[in-house]
Amino acid sequence: MEGDLNTMGALIGAGLACTGMGGAAIGVGHVAGNYLAGALRNPSAAQSQTAMLFIGIAFAEAFGIFSFLVALLLMFAL
Amino acid sequence: MATDTEAEKSLEIHPMDQFLVKPVLGDGPLMWYSFSNTAMWMGITLLGIIIFLIVGTRNRAYVPDRFQMVVELIYGFVRNMVQDVAGRDALPYFPYIMTAFMFVIFSNVLGLIPMSFTPTSHIAVTATLALVVFISVTVIGFVKHGLGFLGLFWISSAPLPLRPVLAVIEIMSYFVRPISHSIRLAGNMMAGHAMIKVFAAFAGVMGIGSFVPIIAISAVYGLELLVAFIQAYVFTILTCVYLKDALHPQH
Hints:
The complex is a heterodimer.
Chain A: H1 5-17, H2 20-41, H3 43-46, H4 50-77
Chain B: H1 2-11, H2 37-56, H3 66-86, H4 94-110, H5 123-145, H6 163-206, H7 211-247
Helix pairs in contact in B: 1-6, 2-3, 2-4, 3-4, 3-7, 4-7, 5-6, 5-7, 6-7
């Protein structure tokens, strides 16, 4: 095991940045769960809203992606 | 002990090694002119799409056979998506969206073949795709609406004191679009492949109990197939959403 203090700090920071993905997981679960709750109440309207489901998931996921981006920057760009 | 050395050897498989870009022929340094495995797999992807579409539509019949049916299904799926999400006046841009969808879905699925390479797991590839969308959408917005395109950032339905704050947020979210658009696809592809490789390393160390990770790999592989389709769908539908913003900047 060798390396300097900066690398250690960057790698710890990268690991900590990955906790942000938990927030994205909560967001995606919230979107999908609410979609399912609505779809079970009115199944006939569910089919027309799948596109909105995926758009919502994509936007909720974006902020998890930013934490992943921070982790990548810390690991490779520093 | 023999098993120990084998275990150590199997742990030497680094999960990120599969994403290494290297020349196909020889192991010289990677120059700008060398034929890398990314280029090779993008070529295979294009070849696959061309064969799929040409063979599928070769004997065009009123009653389609199975192959033609799949091609028509995909065509209709993407066309309906463009029409529903971005509106009828987005249909002139349908060929590009169809091209992007086919490229992303084929390289995602071809990357699931063992020992193959996924071009879409590289941010360089997906960032190019996302930047093409970003730049062309911005140009389309300014060409169609002139300076009225900036109305996208000035939300006229919000209270007046709130509008400058919202404008800053809207501009930031507009410029962050190509980043999230590209890294979503690359990150999903990379994470899934790396996860399969990590489980494969577990199978290497566990000896007789290795059937547990192998079952897990099979399950994750099924999940990855789903993710490959969903990410291609998400990439395309976000392109449609951005196109809708350019064609109808009023909220």
